[in-house]
Amino acid sequence: MKQVNPLKRNTTTPERPRPNRAFLTRRIPRIPDDEINKAAQAFSHFTFERSWGTILVCDLQGVRGVLTDPAIHIANTNRFRLADTNLNKEGFKFFFSTHVCNDVCRKLELISNADMVMKDKLEFREIWPAVDNTVYCSNNLCGKIVPASGARKSDEFPRCHWCETCWPQLESSKVRWMCVAPGPDHDFHVSKFFYESQGREMPRKCGKHREEEPAAVGGALWARMKSGAKQKNISGRSW
Ligand SMILES: [Zn+2]
Ligand SMILES: [Zn+2]
Ligand SMILES: [Zn+2]
């Protein structure tokens, strides 16, 4: 393939954008399976606690970063009757007979424990923090959920939000590109990362010569969904 220097003035065929998925994915950390399983154990305990002892989602297994195989135990014997993994209250006892609280359970300040379940004298955490408004990272291959207040934004990419991993790549992947519009030669700066993260072709013309292309959506919807009044915390019973 003929190599063309995009910065070389007098050329009419600038470098064609090449797909480079590697740099989009390599910096997204993989969580080890034992960490996932610890979180899954705490999640099961959380479902019981947060549902005020009505439901327990368990048996989640972490396989290469994905949680699979859930089983649901539910106190109400009229629900999920056809699920043979639903052991109702016996399922709660079964879970707590082996569950050892880990640091995630402690961080969640879960109160219920095996002793309470066996004696059917349950207590639960009463007050829970309200969840901050969240947005998705605008890199389509990342999509990490970040608090709206901490997400990185820039006028250059309206309506986009970026996580801490993707944000620096917008700037560091900037290249100077030759504008293909007719007229005197000139170049422009363009973030390769931005276009590849959107699965879009790199522009061949500078901003002036290009019609405004619509930026990635995602943030706007969330902005509309945001509620006006923000609660600091919510009661454990309102689930
Ligand atoms: Zn626990
Ligand atoms: Zn990201
Ligand atoms: Zn131009």
UniProtKB/TrEMBL annotation:
One Gene Ontology term from the biological process aspect of the record: myosin II filament disassembly
CDD domains in UniProt: Alpha_kinase (cd04515)
Pfam families: Alpha_kinase (PF02816)
Annotated keywords: ATP-binding, Kinase, Nucleotide-binding, Serine/threonine-protein kinase, Transferase
Signal peptide (residue range): none
InterPro entries noted in UniProt: a-kinase_dom, Alpha-type_PK, Kinase-like_dom_sf
GO molecular function: ATP binding; protein serine/threonine kinase activity
Residue ranges annotated for the Alpha-type protein kinase domain, each copy included: 1-113
Name of the protein this chain belongs to: Alpha-type protein kinase domain-containing protein
Originating organism: Clonostachys solani
